[in-house]
Recover the amino acids of this structure.
């Protein structure tokens, strides 16, 4: 097992210079909070906004509180920020009415606004790196051939669980949660969402594993 996999939760891992380690997450948190507040100004539907940004309202305090013990790579922080922005934009407009989605719909002559497809692609792409980092740093799977499979499996499970959350929201709030459910009349919307999460997870592993490993090694070496 490599050195990266020998760390435990009680031993924080850091990477890059001390200033970089502190500055990047801090800047991203400030930007995320600013965008979050802006997205909450006159959203298309207040309930949809709350439901869409709820993971951010939970995630930011957890990341801030746990930073000293459980700091992550700069790559992961950047990806989490991007994911948060996608959620906030979708929450402000509702996924079916995001202007960028209409723009692509017109260009490619699509039948619906596909911004939600981007959201579910990200729902696999970003959690894949989060899962990979947790498993590589705090489990015996650092060099295991099972690691990619388990990462994709976790992302699919998370996507399926989120579909259950959307279903529960629809049952709880009825028509008021229709924008949160966001099927846009597509009977296969749930299947598409989970499929795209898997595609996103695989794409993340293929495109970012080497960069991610480099950052993990850099963190292991310290400042």
């Amino acid at each position: 097992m490599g050195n990266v996999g020998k760390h435990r939760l009680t031993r924080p891992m850091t990477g890059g210079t001390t200033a970089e380690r502190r500055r990047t997450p801090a800047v991203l948190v400030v930007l995320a909070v600013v965008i979050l507040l802006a997205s909450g100004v006159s959203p298309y539907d207040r309930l949809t906004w709350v439901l869409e940004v709820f993971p951010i309202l939970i995630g930011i305090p957890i990341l801030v509180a746990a930073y000293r013990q459980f700091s992550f790579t700069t790559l992961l922080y950047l990806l989490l920020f991007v994911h948060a922005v996608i959620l906030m934009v979708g929450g402000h407009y509702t996924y079916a009415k995001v202007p960028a989605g209409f723009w692509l719909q017109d260009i490619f002559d699509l039948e619906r606004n596909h911004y939600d497809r981007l959201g579910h692609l990200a729902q696999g792409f970003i959690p894949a790196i989060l899962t990979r980092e947790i498993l590589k740093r705090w489990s015996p799977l650092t060099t295991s051939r099972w690691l990619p499979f388990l990462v994709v499996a976790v992302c699919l499970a998370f996507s399926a669980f989120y579909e259950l959350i959307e279903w529960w929201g629809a049952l709880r709030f009825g028509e008021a949660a229709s924008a949160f459910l966001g099927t846009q009349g597509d009977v296969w919307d749930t299947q598409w969402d989970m499929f795209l999460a898997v595609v996103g997870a695989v794409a993340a592993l293929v495109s970012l594993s080497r960069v991610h490993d480099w950052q993990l090694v850099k963190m292991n070496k310290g400042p």
Remarks:
- The helical segments are 18-39, 46-65, 74-93, 99-108, 115-138, 147-173, 178-181, 189-221.
